[in-house]
Amino acid sequence: MGKKLLKNTEWLVLIVSVILTIIGLFALFSATQNSELYEFRKQIQWILISVPFLIIIFLIDYNIIVRFSTLAYIILIALLIGVLFTSPINGARSWYKIGEAISFQPSELGKVITILFLAFIMNKLQLRGREQINKIWKLIIFLIFAMLPVLLIIKEPDFGTAIAYLVSIVFIIFASGIDRKYIFVALLLLAISAPIIYANLPEHALQRIQVFLNPEIDARGAGYNILQSELAIGAGEIFGMGLLKGNQTQLGFLYPKTTDFIFSVIGEELGFIATVSITILYIILITKSIYIAKTAKDNIGSYIAIGIAGIFFFHMVENIGMTIGLLPITGVPLPFVSYGGSSMVTNFICIGLLLNISSRRQKAIFVE
Asked: What's the domain count of the chain?
């Protein structure tokens, strides 16, 4: 790779992701003391698997990668349909089991595939100018392709991941130069349909919302996890109780402490300073992703970067929000920190794409 590409690369996104990954390993090391460090060891393996993906994605021009997005999208849709016929795990049909120890969640890697494909579609629809997306039939075409994987993921059901897709889609549409009238209409339709959607939510989704509003109504059942999470974070105070010394973490009251509530582990054992530092790191990562989108050399690069920013934004806000009781629990992992192979590979691919786009950038193309 030429010196110019290396010089243009936004290395800070890589540095931040590495720091977050290291913090995650410390938290997993502490959280897995009672399971012989099983998830900790597996996470190291997944990081080692993910690194080559990052390097390969970084080295290949993203415009070449996008050419294969249509085929990847078709395969993704097939996988999302097929997973609906698998046996449920924790109430959702979201995983393919590969042997006894490995599971694959297509919706995780599907985030990147969908972003790449939507960037490709948006670019095609705007060949005659960025204002072309304001033609209603073109917007409908884009939304059909965008919503198909979302609807299949809702069917699993996995509402947290589905919302992550939606946030990413909204970020891409906003960056495309969409007319404000469409935004107003969308908000109006959302306000009108919200009561109808709420009334038709499945029982487990309604229960999560009710528990979010008042965890004490089922303190030993559905509200148990969030109450333990809040207790853990509160006990950490400013500097934490110390690594391996958190009561809720080490005594097994916090669950699932390696995935959904890893932020609670950090809050209890490392304290307020550590949790604020992590939040700042995510803000840096998201703002840098937006900056890369603004300075990309073409529309495709801009849409990919802003879509990734949307994914990171939602995961940060939802995971941290649910652990401190500000948002309902949805089972959304904390990027680079929570345990999970599919998630780790996906996050490293996202970083590879951001590095790729930033290395080839020339000037800002965002609509002001």
From this structure: 1
